[in-house]
Amino acid sequence: MRLFKKLTTTVQCLVRLVIACAFTLVSAQAQSASSEDAKKQRSSEQLSTVKSEIAKQKSAIVQVSKKRRQLNAQLKKDDFAIAKVAKAMNNTRNSLKATQDKLTSLAKEKAQLNRDKVQQENALAHQLRTAYTTGQHDYLKMLLNQEESSQVQRSLTYYQYLSKARIAEIEAFQATIARLSEVEIEQQQKAKQLTQLQQTQQSQRAALEKNKAQRKKTLTALRKELLSNKQQLAKLEQEEANLVAELERLARQSALAKNLPGLDKLKRKLRWPVSGRIKHSFGTRKQGYLRWKGVLLSAAVGRQVTSIYSGKVLFSDWLKGYGLVTVIDHGKGYMSLYGHNQALLKNVGDTVEPGEAIAIVGQSGGQSEPGLYFEIRHHGKAVNPKLWCR
Prior knowledge:
There is one protein chain. The chain has helices at 2-133, 139-144, 149-224, 229-254, and strands spanning 278-280, 285-287, 290-291, 295-298, 304-306, 311-319, 323-331, 334-344, 351-352, 357-361, 371-378, 381-383. The protein is α+β, with helices and mostly antiparallel strands.
C-alpha cells in the first residue's frame, strides 16, 4: 500500500512535470510566434518607409529634372537675347568705324579743297592784275586799226588766251566752292549720324548688361541644382550624343556639296579661329571616361571668331551644352565647329572665306568664363585641331 502510494505520488509528480514542460513549451512557442509576428511587422513597416522614401526621391528627381529643363530653356532664351544685342552692337561698331573713317576722309578732302581755293584765288587775282596793268583796250578800235594789223592780231590772240584761261580758272574755282559746300553739308550729316550711333551704342550696352544679369540669375539657379558625378556624366553623355546626332545629319547634308576642296592638303597651314590659350586640349579627360573632342580656347568676350578655311555654313543655332554654334562644311567630309559664341554673324547657306568673321566670342551654353570651343571632324570623327592649325 505504501509502495502504491509512493508510485502514485511519483506518477503524479511526473504528470505535473510533463504538464509543466508542455505548458512551458506551448508558452515558448507562443512567445516565438509572437516575436516572429513582431519582426514581420517591423520589416513591413521598414519596407513601407523605404518605399515611401523611394517615391519621394523619384518625385524629387522628376521635379529637379523639370526645373533644370525649364532653366535650360531660360538659358537658351537668355543666350539668344544677348546674341541679338551683341550682333546689333557689332553692326553699330562697324557703322561707327565707317562713319568715323568717312569723316576723316571728308576732313582731308575739305583741307585739300581749301588749299585749292587759295591757289585758285591767287591765280585769278594774278590774272586780274595782269589784265589791269596791260590797260583797257577797245577791241573795235584795234580791229579798225590798219597800220599795225600783225600787232593787232597778236593782241587779240593774247587777249583771247587770257580770257579763256580766266574763264577756266573761274569755272574751276566755282566747282571747288560747290564741292566744298557739299563736303561741309556731308560732314554735318555724318556728325549727326555719328552722334545717333553713339546713343544707340549706349542703349545697346544697357540692354546687354540687363540680359547678362538675367543670364547670371539663370546660371546661379542652375548651379543650385547640384548634380552628382554620375548625373553630370549622364548630362555630358546626352549633350555629346545630341551633338553627334546633329553632325551626322549635317554630314548627310554636306555630302551633296561636291565643289568644296576639303582640308587634306592644309595640315599645319591653317590659322586658329581666335588667338588665345588652349584651356582644354583634344583627347584630355573631360568627365569619367569622356574625352574632349576638340579644344577650348580662352578668349575675351567680343573678339571676332574667324573661319579657318573657305566653306559653306551648315548650322547656325543653339545647342544644349554648347550654346550658340556655327558649323562650316569644307568639303571632302571635313567640317569645323565653333561653340559658346556670344553672337553668330552668318546664316545657314552662307559661303565664307578663310579668315572671314563668322561669330563673336562669348560664354553661351552655361559657361562660367568666355572662350571658344572648336572642333574639326572628318567623316564624323573628331580629329586633333593641332594637326591643322598653327
